[in-house]
Every structure is written in structure tokens, then in C-alpha cells.
Amino acid sequence: MSKALSNSFAQKLIAWHAHSGRSGLPWQGNRDPYAVWVSEIMLQQTQVATVLERYPRFMKRFPTVKKLASADIDEVLAEWAGLGYYSRARNLHACAQQVMDQFGGQFSSDPILLEQLKGIGRSTAGAIAAFAFQQRAPILDANVKRILARLFAIEGTLQDKAVNDQLWQQAQLLLPVQPEDMPVYTQALMDFGATWCTSRQPVCVSGANKCPFEKQCQANLSDQVLLFPQKKAKAKSPEFYCDMLLIRSGNAVLLQKRPSKAIWGGLWSLPESPWTSGSGTHSSSDLKALLKLALPDVDAKQWIKTAQFIDLGPQIKHVFTHRRLWMQIWNIDLKKSVAPGETSLKWVPLNQLGLFGLPQPIKVLLQGLSLVRDGDLKN
Questions:
Q1: Domain that holds residue 219
Q2: Which residues are catalytic?
Q3: Chunked in runs of 10, what are the mean pLDDT values of the chain (379 residues)?
Q4: Does residue 229 share a domain with residue 300?
Q5: Half-sphere exposure of residue 75: CA atoms within 13 angstroms, side-chain side
């Protein structure tokens, strides 16, 4: 890195932010480490437009780390429903309890100590330290990796440890000298990557604006901006199939709590059969066979006696980041509810579904079948 770039980068970026950076976001300018932490976790893998809607609601529900730590995990997951990547919500809850139990309810200003908290990696720790405590700590999210990979024309994919080590080194060297510049610098870095140095249409390619680093960016000088960062070839996303049982009794539906380490971990969903990689969802309306697949631990005979209706429902598709899931829905009505017999199963009145964290496709399914009103799913 040239000394001129090292000396000028931060001030150029801060000057750019003054006229072209984002402003008015509800988490901007907040020095409360709890608020910074929640916003950083929520913004991971979630679009800003969605976070703009959900962040104020989450903070109203859980305004302090103490409130979050003392909440029931089901309450936290219900508030998080629809944001995806539910391990983030479980980690938020666990981290809040860790802060209360081990650190007296206070976040440390030391990024190394922050990294010891559940769900906080090096970049998130740097963001909290920079925004809340003006610490000279670098960040390295996807946007920043892209900026630096182009600025220095760094060869290799982002999955390579050597590449990431080099990016961290450059991120550290570019930090502003004055600690008081860290909050605006860190925000400017995020904004520049999100709005100008974008993945597919950076301003230097589209011609929409004049990049302040066009004469220093090695990728731009070699006319290779879109080739950086270098990408690893994507494998085809695998497809999975399962049967899901929509079992109703009167005004209640049977829900099953998912294992904490599974996809949609800790959420309440419909009982389902094991996922298979073939196209083989169950093709028969044989209730005994369906129950054996989805609820192997219940007394199938008892449930069959009270069943009055079974019907093939819709097949719905849900796309995860690295896989696709096809869910065959079976509608089953019981004359009267049967005691579940295990703690992971629960009969839930339709008008109380908003108290439970539901996977987004299940929430959409219930609304689409007109089983619940939109208000019933709001907590």
C-alpha cells in the first residue's frame, strides 16, 4: 500500500459520506452498544429495507440488554420471525444473558473481549467498538471485502484464509488516525460498499458518479473492477422434499418445536417427515403411514380414531441460501384434540399463533388458506 493512499483514504471516505452517504437510519449516531449490536446482527444477511421496519419494533419490545436476557426464547423467536437465519436470534438471546451474567450488564469497549460473546465475530466486534466507543477497530463485512479487494486488486477468492488475512491487514492500515473519526468512517465504509462500490453496478462501471478512488483503485486502473473480488464457482443448490401435517382440531392447530440446531431451529412449525433428497413425498392419504413418518412417537391408533378428514393440500417451495425445500401439505381434521404426549408438540389456538415464532413459509401458508387473519399472527 502506498503511504499516500494510507494517509488519504479515511479522510476522502469521510468527505464522500458528508454528501453521498446514507442518513436518517434509526440506528445511526447511536452510541449505545446494545443498540449498535442489535442493528449489526439484524443487518447481517437481511436487506436494509426489512431492517428499517423491524429494528424499531424489536427495540421497543426489548429496549435493553436486561429485557432481552430475561425474555423467553420463544418470545424472541416470535419477534424475529420473518427475518430468517434464526440462529442469529438464538445467539442474541444467549449473548444478552452472557452480558448480564458475566459482564454485569455492560458491553466491553475492547473488541477482543467482545469477540468472546456468543454470535459476535471479529467484524461485528469491530463495529460495536467503533460506533459505541470510538475504538480504532476495523470491520470486514461483505461490502468492505469488495471495496478492499478492488482497491488493491487482491487475487484469490474470499473463502481463502490468506486472502482474508490480507484484507484484515489492509483494513487495519486504512483506519483514521483520530479515534473520534471512527463512527463516521465505519458508517461511510459500509455505505460506500452498499451504494457506490456495489457488486454488479459500481459507479465506475455504470458512470452514475465519479468515484473518489478512481485513480488509486488498482482494479479500476486495470479495467477489471467486475472481476474483483474473485468468486468461487457455485455448486447447484440441492433440493429436498418432506410431508407436513396441518392437523386441526376445532379452532386449534398442532405445532411442533423444531430442534435448536436444525434449520428454523427453535421455531414452531407443522409436524413433518424427515427430509429426503429424492422427489418422494408420501403419495397416499394413509393417515397411519403419514403419522408414522411425521410423528413416530405418538400413538397412531388413538389419532386415527378421532380423524374425520384428510386431504392432499398444496405443495409449497421455500428457497434457502444453499438449498431448496418442497413441502407437501396434508390437511387433517380431528373430531377432538388428542393429548400430544410429548413436550415438543402443542395445540395452539389460531388467534394465539402470533405468540409463537413460525417459519415464514408456514405463516404465509396459514394466511393463504384463510385459517387465520393477519392480526392473529402479530405478536
A1: 140-173+196-233
A2: 40
A3: 79 97 93 98 94 96 98 95 92 98 97 97 98 98 97 96 97 97 97 97 95 96 96 87 93 93 92 84 73 86 86 91 92 90 88 90 82 61
A4: no
A5: 10
